């Protein structure tokens, strides 16, 4: 990393400055920052999830370079329990999460990425305030929308070329048809959508030769370390409103992401039954996919702020419990960072 940055500064510094992508002075500052690395990269979606982390007395900003601004991102640099960290807020969505993670890994000497935030819950066995640590993440927002009249046995357009697949299953909209007054089904021209794997291009692979990834595993070492988080004491009340039981830290099999805010009971239940999903969010799979392509260790920790779509005694809970969930996940993240070798 340092050799490449030095080469760019010395050989191409003038042209970089002329085109304005990264100025020579910025590269020099990045080089100084990286000389203190490697860092743990921490990727956070929104300010209400970030603020409890920054307000922790454990986080100490770097005295000389407490931040570095680039391309609309504010990279906060510091230490936490003698671990060097760089923290970046992404903003909402898969696009912003992917862009921020790519910039983090391109500019800085990062040894691993920790992503955290709050999420909707698709698992009826879990409760608001619980902090989940999935072993696998998938992007469930990449679809092939099938032509009306075709069914599960009909090949998808471009499937023969390897562009699309029926491997991961589909959502049949007619299963959710309303009945008419005469109890007859209305033909649903929305038909089916088939879930697709992402195309990936690993940094040490052949350029433009794609691979595919649907379920992206988190780092094995990080996931093993997360076993030690089960005894972290979590909050259970917001003012005088308390949860039925004290929240827990739980490792789960799968989480899913997409550019969709899921506040729908039917789709929540579908994601749980089809994919065994627990947390549902809009960023984690994007961070996972970027780290996969860069071969960087990755883990995501998500606290449950609501039962997506309601349907329980705690329906429409996000507005009440988002602050509690944010603090709970930060408490777990702070403990996890101390465990990283």
Account of the protein in words:
The chain is of the alpha/beta class. It has two domains: 24-136 and 204-339, 3-Layer(aba) Sandwich (Rossmann fold), CATH 3.40.50.1580; 143-175 and 187-196, no CATH class. It has eight helices and 18 strands. The chain has helices at residues 2-19, 24-35, 47-54, 94-107, 220-225, 265-275, 284-294, 318-339, and strands at residues 39-44, 59-61, 67-70, 73-80, 83-89, 110-121, 131-139, 143-145, 170-172, 192-195, 198-200, 211-213, 216-217, 237-238, 241-242, 249-257, 277-281, 298-307. The strands form four sheets. A five-stranded mixed beta barrel has the order 6-17-16-7-18, surrounded by four helices. Helix 1 runs antiparallel to helix 2 (24-35), helix 3 (47-54) packs across helix 8 and helix 4 packs parallel to helix 7. It comes from Lupinus angustifolius. This is Nucleoside phosphorylase domain-containing protein.
């Amino acid at each position: 990393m340092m050799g490449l940055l030095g080469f760019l500064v010395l050989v191409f510094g003038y042209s970089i400055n002329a085109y304005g992508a990264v100025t020579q002075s910025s590269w020099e500052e990045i080089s100084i920052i990286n000389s203190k690395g490697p860092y743990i990269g921490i990727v956070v979606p929104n300010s209400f999830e970030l603020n409890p982390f920054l307000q922790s007395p454990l986080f100490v900003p770097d005295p000389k370079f407490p931040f570095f601004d680039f391309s609309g991102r504010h990279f906060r640099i510091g230490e936490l329990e003698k671990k060097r960290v760089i923290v970046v807020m992404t903003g909402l969505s898969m696009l912003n999460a992917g862009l921020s993670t790519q910039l983090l890994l391109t500019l800085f000497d990062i040894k691993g990425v920790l992503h955290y935030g709050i999420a909707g819950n698709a698992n009826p066995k879990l409760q608001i305030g619980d902090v989940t640590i999935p072993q696998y993440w998938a992007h469930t927002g990449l679809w092939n929308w099938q032509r009306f009249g075709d069914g599960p046995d009909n090949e998808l357009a471009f499937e023969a070329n390897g562009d699309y697949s029926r491997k991961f299953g589909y959502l049949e909209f007619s299963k959710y048809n309303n009945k008419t007054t005469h109890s007859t089904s209305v033909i649903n021209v929305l038909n089916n959508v088939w879930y697709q794997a992402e195309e990936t291009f690993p940094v040490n692979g052949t350029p433009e030769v794609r691979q595919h990834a649907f379920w992206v595993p988190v780092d094995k070492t990080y996931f093993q370390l997360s076993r030690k988080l089960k005894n972290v004491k979590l909050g259970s009340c917001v003012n005088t409103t308390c949860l039925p039981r004290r929240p827990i830290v739980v490792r789960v099999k799968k989480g899913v992401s997409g550019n969709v805010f899921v506040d729908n009971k039917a789709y929540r239940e579908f994601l749980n039954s089809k994919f065994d999903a627990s947390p549902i969010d809009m960023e984690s799979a994007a961070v996972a996919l970027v780290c996969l392509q860069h071969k960087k260790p990755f883990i995501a920790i998500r606290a449950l702020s609501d039962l997506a779509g309601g349907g329980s005694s705690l329906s429409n809970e996000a507005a009440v419990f988002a602050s509690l969930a944010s603090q709970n996940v930060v408490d777990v993240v702070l403990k996890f960072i101390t465990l990283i070798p």
